[in-house]
Amino acid sequence: MSTSTSPNSASPPRPSADTTRLQRAWRRGLTPPPNLNVVEWAERYRRLSKESSNGGRFIVSRVEVARGPMLAATEPGVRTITLLACTQLLKTTVIENILGRFVHVDPCPMLAVLPKDDAAETFSKDRLAPMIRDTPVLREVFGEAKARDAGATLTHKQFPGGHITLVGANSPTNLAMRPIRLLVCDEIDKYPLSAGGEGPPIDLAEERQAEFKATSLSVRACSPTVAGRSAIEASYEESDQRKAFVACPHCGGWHPLEWEQVRFDKDEDGRIRPETARYECVECERPWTEAQRLIALRRVEWRQTRAFTCCGERQVPEIWEEERHGVRRALCRHCGARALPNEHAGFQVSKLYAPKQTVRETVAKFARALRRGPEALRTFFNTQLARTWKEGADAPEWQDVYARRDEYLSGTVARAALILFAGVDVQKDRLEVGIWAFGRNRERWLVEHRVLPGATNRPEVWADLEAMVEETWPHASGAEMTVRDWGIDSSGFTAEVYAFVRRQAGRPVHAVDGQDSYAGAFLGVGAKDSTAAGRKLRRGLKTVRIGASFAKQELMGCLALHRPPEGKPFPAGFVHLPRDVSEDQVKQLTAEELVTHVTRGRTRREWVPIGGRRNEVLDCANYARGLAAMRGWDRWREPHWRELEAALGIERPRPAADEPVVAPEVAARTLAARNQQRRAVRRSRVNNRPMR
Question: What is the dihedral of CA 65, 68, 73, 75, to 10 degrees?
Fold first, then answer.
């Protein structure tokens, strides 16, 4: 029996499994990726893991406030996103959805940076792996991971068109290993200041984006920590500072939800009653019910709120354009132009926007934190309000100080200023000189802050300082003023400073030594020259010892004083700044804060820099203050002030014989204020002593 071999009689060959996969991959390659933003992608494809409290389809309206940050990932012009947010609300979800959207729709090399290597592994196992497992499109892109597959390790996962690498911020090698387009940095306040001594981790990672400069995206997320030392706070301040506005159910006005608008009652013992907590509108002051708050959270408008300068005027955003890409851009109220760039989009969100936590629960946490002390209160501010915790209550905000500048210009002396003192801070490549004027009522004026560039181990920069010693400054009366005393910091470059001071013999030029003391601004004079036998020379070089901690605390208290209404006298101790003082100079003047440390049961307070700011202006002010104390500024009486005025050609009318004498005011939180309070207590004790 023969078997037919005719091709017509044989059945067509069935495609193999490899051929089917090849055909499917070919069709998928010819199909363009869907043009979806992060919100559209998440609602269409994302499946929340069973470990989540909301397993199943992702629905952004459950936490409407998350819509804006996700839309910013594809907003035209945005290159950096900052999420300053409370805990357990939107940070991780936003990061996951951004990663998932780019893996599926716009594949590229990605880098996720966590505080440490073990945190990176935890994120991979607890967050990334479940998202891939439960989201079908991602499971198809990554395929089934195999242990022997080098492209699918715990911290490095490859996919067609890119990869995701997860590293710790403490490893400079991993941060600089390969070029990337999408950078995600989570919990950045826990990063080390420097990765292996090579620089800030975020800066090292962002250098890897150079090859994708036109299309790169950097996402930074964290809850804030301590004011001035919080990396997420600094990043948010650099952004356009978007805030979530909601509509009041009563008046319809739009405003962001702020903790200052939360109201509650207290019982007879002064304890907070959380059951009375409610939110009140900032405009109509009517309270909201919890149902009204939840309804208001269904529609959120993100608006730019950073102050800007346009048409020659400093403005706070009051007018915004229509919403596009999830944000309303700020407009100038004069010309109507866009006032702020959107290259860096910043978002701040507190638990007041959380649908699952009521205002009463938030107030209950606040009451509990108050009972437990400062550390618990700090945690409340960081995790619930998404606000930094200010440890140094003595340090005023530099923006407040900058806003109350005077009308006089740098290089001129105001009429009420009667004597000049100068402080010089010595750096390796420059000298910084602060000229300060002092007058009645403990008031002082910044006359000028000048930088003399040049290596301080060379004579040129010292020649510039010597020429400056000969200069004069015009007084408002028309007279020319010279500096009464010059104080040069001798702590860092001792030999150079001592040599310069010796050359200025006969001039009021002193070497100063700042010390950590609260005893006073002027602590005395120390002899430095001695004989071969070690005996101090009476007429040798001497240094002026200055209580730097006292001067800082006094200055911070004085800088916190408010400017009085027009026509009213200035408060005692008021610090005047010229109209053209720069923001950087004011930042330096308020560059340190008093922080309390508890080590082995012992409490220690020290002044620490805020956010790495420079502090040369502050140091110069302290040296000038110490010299003023050395000359007796704190104890001068009216006859001395009249002598100074007479030298400037200022005539001051004498008070009438029957005019009451008003006791001089003293600045709050200064040594004079504390001494005044002690004297009052002593007088009270003497007056109330029973008679024998």
Answer: 170
